[in-house]
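Section 5.1 Outputs to date
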Amino acid sequence: MNRRHLLIITAATGLALPVVAFAEPSETPPAPVTARQWQVVELTLAAQREYDHPFDFESVRLVVTFEGPGAEQLEVPGFWDGKQTWKVRFTPTKQGTWKYVTAFSVQDDPGLHGRRGTIHVLPPDGENPLFRHGGLLKVSPNGRHLTYTDGTPFFWLGDTWWFCPSTLVPFEGSSNPACSSMFRKLIDLRAKQRFTVVQMCFLGPPRFAPGLEGFSVLKPDSWQPQHVVYWQEVDRYIRYANQQGIIPVVGMAFHRSTDAVSLDALKKLWAYFLARYGAMPVGVLIQGEYNLKQGPVGERVEKVLRLGQFIKECDPYKRALTVHPWYYGGDQRQAWDQPWYDFIMVQGGHSREGPPPKFYLEVYNRKQSKPLLEGECTYEGIYGYDAAVVRRNAYKAIQSGSFGYTYGSHGLWYPNQTAEDQKFDKWGKPIPWWQALQRPGGAQMEHLRACYESVDWWKLAPRPGAIVPACSILTKAEGDNTFLLYFVADSEVPPGGRMTGVKGGAAYVGQWFDPRTGRVRPASARLVAEANGLVLPERPDAQDWMLVLKRQTEP
C-alpha cells in the first residue's frame, strides 16, 4: 500500500475506530466508521510530498467539511504534524450520520485533497462529563453562567498554573525525585478534588525535547519542521487533562510579552492552535493582564481586541471566549462590550480583603448581561494568606454574582522547583510546588463546589439587603424557594437578625454547611417565617459558615 494514500481514523479519547486505507482517490469511499457524540475523532492523512512551510496556513491549508444531521455543517481546519503527516480533529455535535470531504490548497495532492468518508455517531457514554455533555463551553441562555456544549450547567472551579506547559511543569519527570510526572500528579489531585479547569499561559522554557533550541511560541514565522515536537508534547498535556474531566483554559502570553509581536504573527499562532486543539475541550483567555498600564498599552489592547475577534471567527465550535485582565482597580474594561467577548473575567487582585461585594454586584447588574467570573484573587500563601482568607474571598465572589472561582497557590502558579528556589519571593515566601499543591485551601475548594451543587446553583441570584439589620451576611437565592447565606468569619450577626423576601408562614428546612470540612448539620427542626421575615438561627460558632435553606412544599 502506498503510504501517501493512507487515511487513519482514531478516537483521541480512547474509542477504538478502524483503520481506513485508500488505494486511489477515485475509488469508492471507505466503509463508514463509528464514533461517539462529544468525543474527538482524529483523521490522519499522508501527503504526497513534504511542503516547505507547513505551519503557514497562507502557504498550505487543509480544511475538512463535515455535514451532519439536520443540515449541520462544520468546516474544520487541519494541521501539519511532521514530515508528510496531516491531521484533522473533529468533535461530532449531533448523533447520526456525518459525511466529510477534504480540501487542500494544493489540489494535485491526492493524499490530502478530495478525501471522502462517513462517520456514524452514537450517543455519548461514560462518566466523564466532558465526553457525556461536551467540553466546548457555551454561555447559558440567561447570560449568567457557562454550560457544557449540550446545555448542562458547568461549575467553574479552577486552579492556576501560568507556567504550564513547560519544562517547569514537565509531563515526564519532575524536580521532586519521588514524583515521576509533575503534570499528572497535579491533574490527578485536582481531579480528585473535583476541579473542572486549569488556567495555563504557556510561559516558561519550551524545550521539552532535543530540537527545540530557539523555539518561541510567539514567533510562528520562525517555526521550523523540527519544532513540531513541541506541539506533540502539548497534545499529551491537553489529552490527559481532558481524560480526567478538566478543561485547560489557555493564554499564550502575559503582561507586555506581545508588545513587540505583530498581530499577523499572533493570528498565525492562534490559527494553528485552533486547528490543532479546537475540537478538544479547551478554553481560551488569550493573554494574561492584557491591559496592564505599562508600555504601549493602547496598542496592546487594540491588538488583543482584534485578536479576540479573529479567534472567534476561526473557531468552528464558537466556544465561550474571554481575556484575562489586570486587577479590578486598574482594569479599564476595554473588552467587555466586544461582540466576541462572551463572559467577564475579573481579577480581584491580592489584597487580603479582596474586592468588596458591591464591585461584583455592579458587574453582575450591568445592563448588558454577561456571565461574571472571578479569575484571580488572593492566592493562598501570597503575603502569608491562609485558607480562611481564600475561603472568604471565594464565597464572597460567588455569593455576589460570580458563576465559579479560580483558586491559586503561591509556589504553584509559578512552580518553585525546590526549597531553595525563591523566585517571586516578593509576593511572600515561596514553597516547593509539591507542598503548594497540598495547601488546605485548595482541598477546601472541593467543599465549595459541593456546597453549591447541593442546590440548583445556576438558578441562584445575589440578594443584597436581604438581611436586616444590615450586616456582613452574603445572600444568594432562587426566588423564595432556596437561600444560601454565607456568614463571614468573626463577623457580628445582630440580635434578632432576620431574612426578608419570604412569605409569612413559609416553612424552611435549614442546614449548616462547614466550608472547612464539607460536613453538614441541621439548623433546627423547622424554620417558619413571620410576617416581617425569617428569624436567623444561631450559627454554630464564630467561624465562617453557609446556611442552606430550602422551602418545604405545602402539604
